[in-house]
Predict the structure.
Amino acid sequence: MEVQLITNPEGRLQMALEAGASAEYLVLQDGTGTSARECEVAYAISLAEGASLKMVFLSLGGTVLRNRLHVSLQGRHAACDLAGICLADGRQEMDYDVLLTHEVPQCASTQLFKNIVGGHGVTRFHGLIKVVPDAQQTEAYQANHNLLASDTAKAYTQPQLEIYADDVKCSHGATIGRLNPDELFYMRSRGIPQAEARLLQQLAFSYEVLEKISSPELREKMQALVEQRLRELA
């Protein structure tokens, strides 16, 4: 399985993974070109029997950015792993709307989306896991975590489960918090300037998503890009 990089997508992307197929995509929305203005992208994705998909989103800029994902697990033993890190600052608005449907038994899905919001930035996450009747032995997990880096930043989150089967393992959760003052105090007591200490906390917050990029070379490049963006926002 190779990692494919998609830069600044816009419009509608359709993807169908056939039986036994495996794919990994990294979607980079870096605030240049088309994503510098209002941008909305809709993804329609289906997975057949035994197919596996990993998608990692890096949303690093854009005046208004909206990602709409609809993923349908249509064959047994299909697996989907979605993750994303979103950096919003100034008066940027970034939205994620995720619908993940388990259509058949014995499928698995994982979602992890994280937002770092500064300035007057706004992020919104709406996620729905739907397990249809008879889609037994489903495993589905969803998490959205938000870090507010300013007093005027806002994050809205709405994770949801809609389950019509009884033999399932499903969970969802969300958090909204600020930089840890105890950690900041500890780092400052060790001689680390406040701005650098804040940056280190934000980088640590983002690593769980970045570590999902399987290519070491590409992961290192994306970590450097996220650090550069965070320094620009500091």
The longest strand covers residues 138-148. The longest helix spans residues 216-233.
